[in-house]
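ok trying again, last paste got cut off:
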Amino acid sequence: MAQAYARSFAGLCAGAIPTMLAGLPAGSRVLDIGCGPGALAAAARDASLDVVAVEPDPEMAALASRRLGQDVVVAGLPDLPLASGGFEAVLVNFVLNHVDNPAAAAHEVVRMAAPGGLVRATIWTSAPSAQGQLFRSVLEASGAVEPVFPRLADGVDFERSPDGLGMLLAAAGARVTDARMVDWVWRVAPDDFWAAPTGGVGGLGVAWSAQTPEVRDRMRVELDRLSEPLQEDGLIVLPATAAYVEARVPRS
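nice, full thing came through this time. structure:
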């Protein structure tokens, strides 16, 4: 799954990197929680930031370690083996939308930031995404069975929006200073997009695994057909949008 994610959705999530790093002073000590294959951490290092990267999946951590040329801490929210208040900026890029207990995870994120430090987080919202709508069209055109997607209980989940993410961090003790949507464009080769479902990545992987071999073959045919009008120079071009929140940890 790590290799499949690196080929596919890692490129999508990388679109938020400029927002996550904007204005951070050179030399700042930064924690990248859930670093995946290391794109954000690498960009932070290139911006002269002192980066520590954390990733719960060992295979993904190995990819990031090779990319960064440094060890990645293998750990995940809400239990990080790091001292409280050690970082001037804590970055959580598309992580809080995947954890089992968002409130506990948010408290751990805030614990990592130094007094007066920043927390910056992104999530996918509950609104349909362009990539999700494309894959939904592929499922329907292929006659695929409807998969059962895992969901958090109502009492555990939070509103997937800038306000909802802001309230999650505020409840953890941080003061929200910015909450908005950010937009970019994702360009991806059809083969790399297809690596996500066939590699078991996210909801696409859940949907893929629920189908028969015959339906899976039809799905690839339908992806090529449905994505053709969206392609430029052989790449599928999809608009992307996500919720972004910046919050500051009190000095006291």
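cool. The domain at 2-248 is CATH 3.40.50.150 (Rossmann fold). The first helix runs from residue 2 to 7.
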